[in-house]
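User: Can you help me understand a structure? I only have the sequence.
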Amino acid sequence: MDKLIDFLIGFNFQTIITVIAAIWYFTKDIKTELSLKLDKIEVDLNKMNTRVSRIEGTVYGQEIYKKIKED
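Assistant: Let's start by predicting it. Here is the structure, written out as tokens:
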């Protein structure tokens, strides 16, 4: 109990409020920035997937058609 009382006596509310304000100030835009960056990554991945699919279709597609004709 004495340790708790000593802790509360040494508790500085100005420091706690300042730390909370600093954390809020530096983290307030993180959610919107992450959302924008994730949206951009999703668009880039979709473009890459489309390009890879086209390349696979031109490279491997001819072989597939040959196998179908032989069967």
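Now, to help you interpret it: The longest helix spans residues 30-70. Helices lie at 2-9, 13-27, 30-70. Let me know which part you'd like to focus on.
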